Write the structure tokens for this entry.
Amino acid sequence: MLASIAQVGQQLPIVVVRDAQVPVVVDGYKRVRALRRLRHDTVVAIAWELSEADALVLERLLRAGSADSAIEQGWLLREMGARFGLGREELARRFDRTPSWVSRRLALVGELPATFDFLGFTLYWGRTRRGQWAPAFKTRKARLRRAITAVSDWCRSHRHLPVKQQHAALVRRINGHCNYFGVNGNSRSLGALLFYVRRAWHKWLSRRSQRAYLTWRRFLDLLRDFPLPRPSIRVQIWATP
């Protein structure tokens, strides 16, 4: 989207409503973010003469309609109820459904756990790029902490090895971690591992002797000669939305 707007400009207006004379964006967050990054000071917008709650309902119906799953509908209903204080009767009226339809979907999402751990991952509900709810994955905190500790211990016990050998071993460890945990949606946890690997390597290279302290500038020069692999997604659990 950023490249498209930079090349041809904003083609579609965003949708806003007025809440206490302050425009509230209902649809078009990505376009606004892209225009800010491009340092544009104007945005083409359409103003709906509706309340924010009614505008969100209408935008959802126009964009997704009946294609949403029952879980996605339940998440939307729960969010609307919590944010705007709408009861089940009012939600049913606004979505042109029956109260039992609303109750079934609220009960469905109410029974789902917020998060749970499985095979080293924490699974939670997150939004896709299209704004729909979907299961998301991140490395379990305890597993990430254990991986960081293991790398730090290895750097400490092998700090007197030649830098080339240390680099090769760290590359293998990072690639092995990414081969398992490199699933789409887990980029932040992978980036955290690389951050702490660099810190640990710098720390223990600086302690090879009392006079061998390695400044960060020299360490960055070393990383140019012995770069650590950047975390990458190795497994696509689902297609990119």
